[in-house]
Amino acid sequence: MNSLAMRGSLLSLVFLVVMLGLWELATATSGGGGTAELSEYELLMGGAGDEGVARVPPPSAVISHAIAELANPFYDNGPNDKGIGIQLAYSIYRVITGYSMALAVALPLGFVIGMSPLMYKALNPYIQVLRPISPLAWMPLALFIIQDSERSAIFVIFICSIWPMLLNTAFGVANVRQDWINVARTHELGPLRTAVTVILPAAAPTILTGMRISIGIAWLVIVAAEMLVGGTGIGYYVWNEWNNLDLASVIFSILMIGVVGMLLDMALGRAQRLVEFKE
Prior knowledge:
- This protein is mainly alpha-helical.
- It has helices at about 5-30, 40-45, 50-55, 60-70, 85-115, 115-130, 140-145, 150-175, 180-185, 190-230, 235-245, 245-275.
- The longest helix is centred in the C-terminal third of the chain and has 39 residues, at about 190-230.
């Protein structure tokens, strides 16, 4: 690890310690206490003044709760009492399934749009109309047509994941240097072989940028979707713990959402660096 990276890591650790210290001090000086004394309405409104702060659990309580949860993350005591590992597994499964379906559609369609100006002109109006629609706006229609909350959540992930991958693929393909394509034609390569051996390697970094954006959006959306449909998943876990007025669990689950999202982004970021095209 170089000097800059070490200093950056050290400074990041200092920020964390300071932030946790201020949080602990704020909850201690304002009287501490749990969430049980507040009514559900008061919690929903954030409390009033120092009283609201007093009910926020200190980081020591959140850390203790995290240790207990992570010690047995896959316990299953019934529909409304499952470990954080099981809830995250449900969410990751839904994200990967919907994301893979979007990838299977976005890549070939993006190649077609990028290689054919005619197809771009024909499909662009539909893309521009559908792309700005909030993924959650599709949920009622999906529930009505599919009549299954699990598949409806996967469909919402599909619809929110497809646009960044589709547009980045089309952009990357359309901007491949023409002289490389001319060389492929000189060697009498067919369109499919040209796409696989010339265009795909050149456009890969741009395609992976779209994939990286899509996985972040998908992870954001699944939390909201699971809050709507309930049952299982990290979004349902957050909402269920809120209904139980357990803020330590809510904060812990929020942190876990962030950690998993970071790991998904890091995985695709590493893949992107591995395929960066060197001219």
